[in-house]
UniProtKB/TrEMBL annotation:
<dbReference type="Pfam" id="PF00175">
    <property type="entry name" value="NAD_binding_1"/>
</dbReference>
<dbReference type="InterPro" id="IPR052128">
    <property type="entry name" value="Oxidoreductase_NAD-binding"/>
</dbReference>
<dbReference type="InterPro" id="IPR017938">
    <property type="entry name" value="Riboflavin_synthase-like_b-brl"/>
</dbReference>
<feature type="domain" description="FAD-binding FR-type">
    <location>
        <begin position="65"/>
        <end position="192"/>
    </location>
</feature>
<protein>
    <recommendedName>
        <fullName>Oxidoreductase NAD-binding domain-containing protein 1</fullName>
    </recommendedName>
</protein>
<dbReference type="InterPro" id="IPR001433">
    <property type="entry name" value="OxRdtase_FAD/NAD-bd"/>
</dbReference>
<dbReference type="GO" id="GO:0005739">
    <property type="term" value="C:mitochondrion"/>
</dbReference>
<dbReference type="GO" id="GO:0016491">
    <property type="term" value="F:oxidoreductase activity"/>
</dbReference>
<keyword id="KW-0520">NAD</keyword>
<keyword id="KW-0560">Oxidoreductase</keyword>
<dbReference type="InterPro" id="IPR017927">
    <property type="entry name" value="FAD-bd_FR_type"/>
</dbReference>
<dbReference type="InterPro" id="IPR039261">
    <property type="entry name" value="FNR_nucleotide-bd"/>
</dbReference>
């Protein structure tokens, strides 16, 4: 999920003040109810008449009522333009599903951000940590992350979103095809990490989870803009045959490193790439720029993928 602009009727200090259960003001709720646009949908038509703000765009999505305080405990450069934040969450009742996003409240900044979570629910459960990968833009929350955010900076978070993968013990296994464009990898990386956690948990305890295979197709301009690539290669090595990935680059100018070469294809994700995965027990998750989602959705329809098996989330 990319960075959008929203002004709410209550100030950030008010949101942060006091207990962890804080509810938005009536004016903020009015903004939430204003739009009938579905940000995440299944087999929907994607049309954008104007650039809506984050709360408008996500008005009909699920949203938790709890706003939780968080402290920055780690900042790294994921690429030249993307910073990865580690946030310590003190509230033990804070939860999310792999693929969801957070409303991002910053003290002293009246603009509320919306960023997809790129870590797994398991990391939160084990260590009380949530991660975000934020691309540098002029959008105030993103600009703050890149220019003012430091270790121990305090923010507040609220989880939302209907785009997620949350299998339960006893569910029939499904194969997943994850298709990412640019920083649209964030929620899909969260899903990938969650599946890796479930594989590890399954092997350790035999807990009843039945998991299919996962194939990630990830497209970016060049290999330097492929986020989490070392982590993804590590997952493929740890779970051979269960998790696989094909990176696509469209404007590569430099030599591709030997470690990545076997997994990189130059050119866009094509019908030929995807048609081999069509089956009755495959679900498709797509996240990226709207034109990419429109193109991939049309391609999937052309190769016979039922619309109710395709899930997508736009960033903008």
């Amino acid at each position: 999920m990319a960075h959008t602009t929203v002004y709410v009727g209550c100030t950030v200090p008010q949101l942060l003040k006091g207990a962890s259960r804080i509810f938005p003001s009536h004016s903020a709720l009015g903004v939430l109810r204003h739009s009938s646009f579905y940000y995440c949908t299944v087999n929907g038509t994607i049309k954008s008449k104007r650039k809506m703000d984050h709360l408008e765009r996500t008005a009909n999505n699920f949203r938790q009522e709890v706003i939780t305080q968080a402290k920055v405990c780690g900042i790294t450069d994921e690429s030249e333009t993307v910073k990865r934040l580690r946030l310590a969450i003190a509230n033990k009742d804070f939860t999310f599903k792999a693929g969801q996003w957070v409303d991002f409240f910053i003290p002293g900044v009246s603009v509320v951000g919306g960023f997809s979570i790129c870590s797994s629910p398991g990391l939160l459960e084990r260590e009380g940590i949530l991660e975000l990968a934020v691309k540098h833009t002029v959008h105030p929350p993103a600009h703050w992350v890149h220019t003012e955010c430091t270790l121990d900076s305090e923010v507040a978070l609220r989880v939302g979103g209907d785009f997620f993968f949350d299998p339960q013990p006893g569910d029939s296994p499904v194969n997943l095809v994850l298709i990412a464009g640019g920083v649209g990898i964030n929620p899909l990386f969260s899903i990938l990490l969650h599946i890796a956690d479930l594989h590890g948990y399954q092997e350790g305890k035999g807990n009843g989870y039945k998991l299919g295979t996962v194939k990630l197709y990830y497209s970016a301009k060049n290999t330097s803009e492929l986020l989490f690539k070392k982590n993804i290669l590590g997952l493929m090595n740890t779970f051979p045959g269960k998790i696989t990935c094909c990176f696509h680059v469209t404007q590569q100018r430099s030599q591709i490193c030997k470690e990545l070469q076997p997994h990189v294809t130059e050119g866009r994700i094509s019908e030929k790439d995807l048609e081999k995965h069509v089956s009755n027990n495959t679900s498709w998750y797509i996240c990226g720029p709207p034109p990419m989602i429109e193109s991939i959705s049309k391609l999937l329809s052309n190769i016979g993928v039922p619309g109710n098996r395709v899930f997508f989330e736009k960033w903008w």
